[in-house]
Amino acid sequence: MSLNVALNNALSGLRVNQSALAVTSTNLANVNNANYSRKVLVQETQVIAGVGSGVTADTIRRNVNTLIQRDFREETSTLSSIQTENNYLARIQQMFGTVANKNSVGDIIDNFSAALERLGSSPEISSNFFTAINSATTLTDRIQSMANTVQDERIRADQEITKAVADMELQIAIIAEINGTIPGQSAQGLPIGDLEDKRDQAINTLAKYVDIQYFQTEKNQINILTKSGHTLISGGFSADLSFRQTTLITANESYPAILDGIHLNAGGNPSTANDVTSGMGGGKLESLFKARDTILPAVTNQLDQMAEKLRDEVNRVHNRGANTPMGKGTAALDPATTLGSRSFSNTAQTLTIGSDVNMVLLDANGAMVGGMGSITAGATTPAAVQAQINTFLGANGSAAFDANGQLEIKLNSNVRLAFKDTGAATNGGDSILQFDADGDTVDESYNGFSNFFGLNDLFVTPQLGSTVPAVAGQGSQTGISSGIIVRADLVDQPSGISRGSLSGTPPNYALGPGNNDVALGLAGVFEKNFTFSGVSNGPDTTSTTLSGYAGVMLSYSATVTQASDNSLAFQTSLTGDLEIKMQNESGVNMDEELANLVIFQNAYNAAARVITVTGEMLDTIIELV
């Protein structure tokens, strides 16, 4: 009986050590596979009828520390979030340029200011006209480029969200499929370690996109939820995620009005009820939405403020000048000599002018042609003002409102039109106009008659989402930085830039070639402090120059980016340490496996030797019988 026990023990040892060698060989084959967890053959004493009968090993266990694994996934989610945000912040910081390289928008503003100063010092030198307009064009081109870059980055974020959602759906499907397979495999006594490795890999990938919580069921299935409690996987069930990518994004487009969010189990009918965007916290996905809907729009807000202040303050001074273009003719098909930038939906609306506004016609040399006209102070309407201008022009031109409600003035080719406000000197001579431009039943104040109608603007902004142009106090100001330009006829003919205002005593005015008060006033705009409102996820309210605000934007961007760099460095180190610990726990150690290989080989040989000795003893017994 004892020899049979010895033989059975030895045979079980052969089988178990053979299995252990197979497991070891698999471990060694995957020694460089980061997604593989070390497998261990669990050996137990075999007991039959209360008597030890060798060894059995039916279970292959993965060597995984689930606590470290859970910590690693949480920190991976945080790291992915910081990395994604840092990438966008770094690109925005690069867009702003650097002070050291003299390529920041503040440097370009300073160049424009310097060009205006040269124009003011020497208004008779024609090259100064070109330099000033070229500098202005360079500035608007740079502002437009920055604004367009911001929208391009929003499109990039939207595209990355699409890819992230598609990959999340893939990983969710993999996990759900494995969840459905594992119970059957276990019931048949088949190994499931490699399936669990593949599931862990999918869970790790999913954790990069969103902060998850999960638990293991008694059937060894993993159920996964978002931190806010939305079920992504329950056993073999997988949730359906959907997202609609937007191919073109403008500054006026925002979530959820136009841009889409993440919808859960929408069944092809996305709605507010199944929008779970706010519940997809943590991970790459959260930072992508933050970049698209918060960080980048905040940059647009800053650029729009700068563009709006640049437009309004420069135009206010430029409209004091008398350098309106020479007439282009008064035939029906002739282009307008002057087209106001403000649009009137109701030309009969009340307009109050604070002081008289004088009108004169000038020849190419700046001398008056004919007598002076006047628009008297008091309550009036845009239509009445248009009629007065039209009457004054007589045979020299005409004034009318075009189809968009903008004041259009046509002049004979040998004259140009100039306006002279008679307001207080403390206000730069501007007349103060009262008009409800935004339709809120409260009148707003505007400085300067020509400035109010936009008859001699230097900078103009496009129409945004409607037929109403974006001008001071009227139309949407969101996104004007993407379209601010120098007035087209000034680009074509830089000599039209305002250098001086009418001089003389009414009714005798003139514009001499040396007049430079407007040019000096334009340069002075860049020396004044203006109040810039605080921006959510941007700089606080500040009072500074136009160039100074460009510096504020750059400084804020640099500060935020540096803080993100520091967070990224810390999180990368923390996550890396956890990954090393996890690999030390679950990874394959070649030295250890080679040592085990020798142990299992010796154990196998020993078991074989026991069988040999037992066989010899049995032969001896048989011979004795």
TrEMBL record:
It comes from Kiloniella antarctica. Residues 584-624 form the Flagellar basal-body/hook protein C-terminal domain. This is Flagellar hook-associated protein 1. Coiled coil: none annotated. NCBIfam families: flgK_ends. Belongs to the flagella basal body rod proteins family. Keywords: Bacterial flagellum, Cell projection, Cilium, Flagellum, Secreted. Residues 89-324 form the Flagellar hook-associated protein FlgK helical domain. It is found in: Bacterial flagellum; Secreted.
